[in-house]
Amino acid sequence: MIPDKIIATFLDKQTALTIATTVDDIPYCASCFYAYSGGSAILVFKSSRDTIHIQNGIQNSRVSGCVLPDKLIIGKVQGVQFSGVFVEPEGKMLEEAKRSYYKKYPFALAIPGELWAVKLSYIKFTDSTLGFGKKLIWDNKEQVKAVS
Known about the structure:
Layout: H1 5-13, E1 16-23, E2 26-37, E3 42-47, H2 52-59, E4 62-67, E5 78-87, H3 91-104, E6 114-127, E7 135-139, E8 142-147
Antiparallel strand pairs: 1-2, 1-4, 2-3, 3-6, 4-5, 5-6, 6-7, 7-8
């Protein structure tokens, strides 16, 4: 299932995510450039295997995070909170991840690191441009539904 077009459009336009991990009840956050790949509903980012957030994701694949607009505008609040499963893409997913990420960031081909992904399972999109405090919810079991 692919997130609603409004959510997907927002995710396509932004460039940075914050990913939150936890191991042994010790939380950790990291910010990364990402690309959204709608085919598999994944957020793809590049990072080195030896970083704390990657090591944490390998140990505990349940992650969450957020995506804010590259430019915040007062009165037009938008943002995504997400949760999902941390994965090292392989096979078909890896090819999709490479296409999405390197199309958006061709210069990243020259930067060391591996591609990683969050397979999205839940998204809450706040979009005040649709009405103050308007939220759209998507999860892997339901279609997008409006929540006030």
